[in-house]
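FAQ: What does the model actually see?

It sees only this:
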Amino acid sequence: MAEIADFARLVAGEHGLAVVSTQRADGTVQSTVVNAGVLDHPVTGEPRVGFVVRGSTRKLVNLRARPRTTVVVRVGWEWAAAEGATELIGPDDPADGVDVRLLLRAVFTAAGGTHDDWETYDKVMADERRTAVLVTPERVYSNAPR
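And it is asked to produce this:
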């Protein structure tokens, strides 16, 4: 089985672009593209796959109701997937002792993002009610040669 390091290595290859799959209420799968990266959990320090979603998205509704996801990154023909339980941290999903503003920045940079004006970034994130999604990598697998 692959490790979270295998997943993290591929993040830089496609600017953090990843496919996230969530489960709808009827049991079907809903998939979208996000920017994702690997970062340490802001409280436990354990590695997590993180991505950010707008407060009005269907994937956020799905994750609130069914807090599990699969995130897949790929570069060329090589890919890695991380599956696990999700934790939501944002303006509508607060977490004790976590500064949402700093967490959103950390997820953004883990996915390869940079910004020249963090105040503007913070304002946009707040206006859009952005939420960080942290995935516990319970199962990581890939097609990387061993």
